[in-house]
């Protein structure tokens, strides 16, 4: 599926629509450059899961946990990790077992550890415009 968004709010709306289709244990593997809109997309995922907490980038913390929704959201930033082994060292298996959604920025750094993820590629077309391509996993048509 491919979407063109023209604002962060529209990018969030695509994330919220995806969240409505997710089951516990879903893994979202993000691809996109710095500033592409991965955190905006995650804000939408959180909203779609009923999470009201402010969503921020986990760049310095490696993972941010949001537990107040209908299922937990674990937002990872793998930029500082080099291998899948590093991911397991921070407790990846434990996060998967907790029955939430794992959203992984810089997923290419740990792709060996991600089994059947839903891949969300966000391309920056201009200051506000984004192309969002969603592939993999078990997806139904997203209605916006």
Keywords:
single chain; 144 residues; alpha/beta; Rossmann fold; 7 strands; 25% strand
Question: How does this model look, in words?
Answer:
With about 140 residues, this protein is α/β, with parallel strands linked by helices. The protein has a single domain, classed as P-loop containing nucleotide triphosphate hydrolases (Rossmann fold, 3-Layer(aba) Sandwich). The protein is built from four helices and seven strands. A seven-stranded mixed β-sheet has the order 1-7-6-2-5-4-3, covered by helices on one side. The model has no long low-confidence stretch (mean pLDDT about 90).
Task: Summarize this entry quickly.
The chain is an alpha/beta fold and 144 residues long. It is 24% helix and 25% strand.
Strands of the biggest beta sheet: in what spatial order? Answer: 1-7-6-2-5-4-3
DSSP strand (E) fraction? 25-35%
Averaged pLDDT: 88
| Number of strand elements | 7
* CATH structural architecture: 3-Layer(aba) Sandwich
Radius of gyration: 14 Å
Helix content: 10-25%
Basic shape? globular
Q: Unreliable stretches, pLDDT < 50, 5 or more residues?
A: none
Total domains, how many? 1
CATH topology, which one? Rossmann fold
**What are the secondary-structure elements, in order, as H or E?**
EHEHEEHHEEE
State the major sheet. Answer: 7 strands, mixed
Class computed from helices, strands and strand pairing:
alpha/beta
CATH superfamily: P-loop containing nucleotide triphosphate hydrolases
């Amino acid at each position: 599926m491919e979407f063109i968004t023209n604002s962060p709010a529209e990018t969030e709306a695509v994330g919220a629509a995806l969240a409505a289709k997710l089951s516990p244990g879903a893994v979202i593997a993000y691809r996109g450059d710095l500033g592409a809109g991965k955190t905006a997309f995650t804000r939408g995922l959180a909203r779609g899961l009923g999470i009201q907490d402010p969503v921020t980038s986990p760049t310095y913390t490696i993972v941010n946990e949001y537990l107040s929704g209908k299922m937990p959201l674990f937002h990872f930033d793998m930029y500082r990790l080099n291998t899948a082994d590093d991911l397991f060292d921070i407790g990846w298996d434990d996060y998967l077992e907790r029955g939430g959604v794992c959203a992984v920025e810089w997923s290419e750094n740990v792709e060996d550890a991600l089994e059947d993820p839903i891949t969300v590629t966000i391309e920056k077309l201009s200051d506000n415009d984004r192309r969002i391509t969603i592939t993999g996993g078990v997806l139904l048509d997203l209605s916006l």
